Amino acid sequence: MTRTTMMISILAAGAAGVCAAPAWAETLPVSAVYAAEQDAPSEFQTIVVERFDGNEGTKFALALRNAIARARIDGEDYFEVRRDSAPGEDAGQTAWINGTAFTEVERLQAGTTEERKCVRRDDDDKCVQYRTYTYSCSELSVRFTGEVQMLDAREELAYDRSFSTVDSKRYCRNESSVPSTSDMVTGMVDRFAWQVRRDLAPIQRHEDIRVLESRKDMDKPLRKPFKKALRLTKSNWEAACSEFERLNKAQPRHITLTFNTGLCREAVGDLDGAEELYDLTLELEAGKDYPTAGLSRIASRRRAAEQLAIHYGEPEAEHLADGDRDPGKPVRDSETAEGLSSASTS
């Protein structure tokens, strides 16, 4: 069984259960694989995360290894992640990552704060005398800098990213807690490791995207069935989409019906049809963010198709991520919950 055939089986099985699940708002489900930020890493199957120099090098290398290892498509690891090169592995499909990671910590004076407190109460426990206390304050500043480089078997640079960021927290002597340098460093390390992971691998994501609900300028005979279609999005989005398609034919160029029909096309993977309707939505009302966001998703899915075809060595036309499916047979990509515990997916 080829990987493409296996993905079809996985996605079709997932669609049967997911499509029946009720939504709790007027939304349509869009599940897809979206592109990595960088194209070059697509050719590699194995990533070797080597030693990082710097006082946070060990910590960052571990966070990066874990972040890349969480990149999955249809439940399968996108990369094989290792600490060292394996004997006899295909060097042409392997990349080596190393770099630096440093932190610098400063504690600076940061003025004062005042707090008014009751110092005497009467017999009824009512405050009759206050005093203002002044407390000194400090600022904990952590700078995180470094670089990540990916080299291929010829030791040529395939990917490079530098980073420099500062996180600061102010605290005063009257506060019960003091910022933790360790917690601040961990947060910065994890965030940047996640950014590198997004550069290297596509992300599989499920979203519930809101339909438009405005009936302004809609023909009167269409308003009642339109309200019915909106209600159907909560229980049977496929039936709702059938109704949106019918209403859009009855009144072409209505912005709500045009966009909702485009979103339906996107949900079933008809990217060409969705793109055409999103473009028309922008023609009807320029500058709106919702069709622009839809066009951005479509562009990312198409780019992801190219990346996946390179990564798995398959013809692009055969790969599911391009969305060229039969619009009458909704097939949804399975949701993958990836990402840092502080953020959330890929």
UniProtKB/TrEMBL annotation:
Keywords per UniProt: Signal
Compositional bias ranges of the Basic and acidic residues kind: 313-335
Signal peptide interval: 1-25
Keyword Zinc on entry: no
Region (Disordered): 312-346
SUPFAM superfamilies listed in its UniProt record: TPR-like
Keyword Signal: yes
Identification of the protein by name: Tetratricopeptide repeat protein
